[in-house]
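Please decode residue identities from the backbone states below.
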């Protein structure tokens, strides 16, 4: 018998190298990803700019409190001349802008507006409906009535280019308290123009008439009708009790230089471009019917006037249009520390346990070869009883049923949340977490850490339970915080149930 033990020891040491365990490899890779994510959060905490951006925004809110009364006491009117075309005469369009405190934007702050001051908005707005400026208005009207014209009839209906487009200069007149009046005008801005795009291969003609909703011209250009949709200008005091256009200093922008209309607009992301254009859904041989029926053929134009130091402009500049100041440095530090710790544990623990299992087996064979009395090594007492009870078919079926029931409750926990089910779902989450924590402890005792980690199903269960416990402990009452994202790991229950 001693010779057999010696042979087992020699064969164990001379065995060929085993291939890498897929479960261990997957766990190690996942741990490395979590570790690198944690490092990213830590580096982000070092270079965090939320405090500076929120401080700059707060200063702008305080400045706005000085400018808002001036804008509120100001009346603004606007006028412009429609260009004369071969099919219709020109004409004067006048409108009085109305004050409004409603905004069509909102913050999407990750920290739920923590430290961000509120302000009372104010702007002047007017909505206009311009007459049709095309040379083929009747054809566009037939498109809106779902009576399409042959494609050949549209070949000569391409609009003028940006350089030759019909333009209008918008003239503004402001009247403040005390009868102070000031006036200013914008440069001539195109009202409609042709936007050529390169045809999509391999069939540019079919794409242009299909998804492109344009007019195809050889050798491969698709033409679309662009019309002015929004005009937003920013004013600043002229130092004499009146107002003037505010021209911002722009170093870079996304629009083409040849299509600039000025730098007195409201959006920093477009280099303070004042004009916003929209593709006409009713123009072309194959119009976009759904959008055309919803919007109609009318050329609708909204003119907005804001004051400089409007917090909206500063928020758009600081957040690059996202309206989110981002995570705070403390949140990134906590998140990075937790993820870094989790990543180290996920990488190190399975590999250490694997090495310990190999060393334990080697020591066992060494003891058996050196001491024949040690051959009766095995489970005894409570561990043997626990192992026998946890490996029965009934226990396995019970665990699978619990997993399936948790998957069902996860399916009910959707977005937007159903308020009537929130208490029930929260209770179910706690109950399932307690059940699976007890199951994990029993399996660890029955199988041992080595076999527990090397078994894919049990390893996934351990990861899910551990992450769920961390999420509950770090996000009390299930509210907010970056650790709410850890709830995503519960989706591993779906392949576990399968």
């Amino acid at each position: 018998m001693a010779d057999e033990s010696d042979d087992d020891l020699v064969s164990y040491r001379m065995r060929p190298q085993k291939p890498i365990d897929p479960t261990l490899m997957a766990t190690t890779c996942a741990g490395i990803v979590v570790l690198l994510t944690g490092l990213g959060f830590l580096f982000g905490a070092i270079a965090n700019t939320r405090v500076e951006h929120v401080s700059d925004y707060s200063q702008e809110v305080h400045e706005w409190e000085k400018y808002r009364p001036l804008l509120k006491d100001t009346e603004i009117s606007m006028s412009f001349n429609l260009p004369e075309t071969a099919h219709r005469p020109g004409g004067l369009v006048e409108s009085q802008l109305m004050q409004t405190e409603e905004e069509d934007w909102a913050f999407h702050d990750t920290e739920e507006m923590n430290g961000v001051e509120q302000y009372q908005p104010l702007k002047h707005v007017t909505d206009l409906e311009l007459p049709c400026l095309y040379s083929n208005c009747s054809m566009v009207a037939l498109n809106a009535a779902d009576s399409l014209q042959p494609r050949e009839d549209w070949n000569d209906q391409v609009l003028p280019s940006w350089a030759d487009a019909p333009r209008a200069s918008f003239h503004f007149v402001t009247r403040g308290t005390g009868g102070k009046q000031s006036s200013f005008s914008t440069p001539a801005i195109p009202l409609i123009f042709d936007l050529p795009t390169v045809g999509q291969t391999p069939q540019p003609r079919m794409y242009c008439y299909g998804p492109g909703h344009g007019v195809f011209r050889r050798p491969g250009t698709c033409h679309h009708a662009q019309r002015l949709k929004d005009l937003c200008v920013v004013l600043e005091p002229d130092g004499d009790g009146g107002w003037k256009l505010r021209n911002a200093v722009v170093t870079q922008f996304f629009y083409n230089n040849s299509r600039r209309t000025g730098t007195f607009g409201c959006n920093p992301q477009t280099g303070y471009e004042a004009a916003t254009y929209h593709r006409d859904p009713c123009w072309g041989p194959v119009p976009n019917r759904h959008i055309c029926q919803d919007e109609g053929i009318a050329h609708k134009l909204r003119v907005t006037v804001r004051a400089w130091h409007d917090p909206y402009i500063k928020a758009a500049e600081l957040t690059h249009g996202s309206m989110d100041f981002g995570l705070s440095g403390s949140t990134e530090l906590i998140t990075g520390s937790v993820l870094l710790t989790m990543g180290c544990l996920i990488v190190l623990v399975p590999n250490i346990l694997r090495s310990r299992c190999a060393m334990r087996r080697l020591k066992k064979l060494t003891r058996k070869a050196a001491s024949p009395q040690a051959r009766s090594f095995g489970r005894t007492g409570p561990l043997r009883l626990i192992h026998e009870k946890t490996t029965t078919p009934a226990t396995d079926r019970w665990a699978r049923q619990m997993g399936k029931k948790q998957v069902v409750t996860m399916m009910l926990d959707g977005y937007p949340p159903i308020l009537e089910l929130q208490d029930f779902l929260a209770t179910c989450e706690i109950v399932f977490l307690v059940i699976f924590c007890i199951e994990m402890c029993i399996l660890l005792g029955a199988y041992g850490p080595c076999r527990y980690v090397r078994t894919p199903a049990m390893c996934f269960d351990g990861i899910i339970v551990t992450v769920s416990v961390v999420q509950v402990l770090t996000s009390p009452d299930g509210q907010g915080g970056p650790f709410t994202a850890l709830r995503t790991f519960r989706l591993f229950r779906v392949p576990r149930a399968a």
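Observation: The longest strand covers residues 221-237.
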